[in-house]
Amino acid sequence: MTNPTSSIDQFKYQPEKIQSGTVYHYIKSNIDGSYPAHVYIRVMDTDNIDVWKFEEHNIDAAHVSAHMDWKTFSADKIESLVVTSDGNGRPQAKLTSSRADMSFTIHWRDRADTIQVGHYPVHIYNFDFISLNFSLRHWVKPEGEATIGIIQPDFNPNPDTLMKYEGTLTIRYVGDEHRHNKACRKYTIVGHAFKDQKGLMWVDRSAGHVEDMEIPVPDNPACEDFKFELFSINQMDNETWGTFINSEIRKLNPGND
Q1: What confidence tens digit (pLDDT) does each residue in 79-125 have?
Q2: Interacting residues of 106 by C-beta distance below 8 A, sequence separation 6+
Q3: 239 phi and psi, to 5 degrees?
């Protein structure tokens, strides 16, 4: 692959826009609201995000920790676990990035694959665009357009590689619109990575976080399309966060299979 293109210069790291201890509660679902999951995202510090997802089936939870690289405005390390009602976690996957050779390496079970990327910043759609969500508040001119690269797991039963670079998307400002009674910038998201299908995104004008996303492309095979809607924001210290997550884990019912 040739050297990747870049729109990194359209972003400027602004640490004051990241508040440690902030917890974002999103509902992930199909656009029609079916197959909902509760997604809790806590800002651990300026570089690290802790994510828990509790799906409708209520059997187990997904726990993902991500490290943000503010030189590429991308997540450069992601580790995921499957957590059961007894609190035990089973490693699922680990993703690491090498800026030196413009690559990502994924470890899954006893296999490891490395892929090259074609554009930075680069985000994983299957990670619910969470790294994009946290990068947007550092966009220098948010009433313009920016290009991002997309990588995705290969969901085929016997994939040649565990991850794929899907190409690019363009995020384009189209005007202001209220969402959840909040003043938001509205964007279209379209490009080769989505086979030119167009998604919509609403971003809080003052705080810079995503209020809502509706994209006609599923981010995993179990879904028909993708909606990611903010439900609430609050603050939790480490102890409160741990207590809250443990209480959610105890609600898991392994008999709901």
Answers
A1: 999 998 888 899 889 999 988 888 999 998 888 999 999 999 999 99
A2: 93, 94, 95, 112, 113, 114, 115, 153, 162, 163
A3: -65, -45
CA-wise closest residue to 86 among 64, 59, 68: 59
Whole-angstrom distance, CA of residue 66 vs CA of residue 24: 15
Q: How far apart are CA 31 and CA 185, in angstroms?
A: 20
Cα–Cα distance measured from residue 206 to residue 98, given in angstroms and rounded to the nearest whole number: 33
pLDDT band per the 50, 70, 90 thresholds, residue 2 = low
pLDDT, tens digit, for every residue of 159-208?
Answer: 888 999 999 999 999 999 999 999 999 999 999 999 999 999 999 999 99
Q: How far apart are CA 24 and CA 186, in angstroms?
A: 20
242 SS3 class: helix
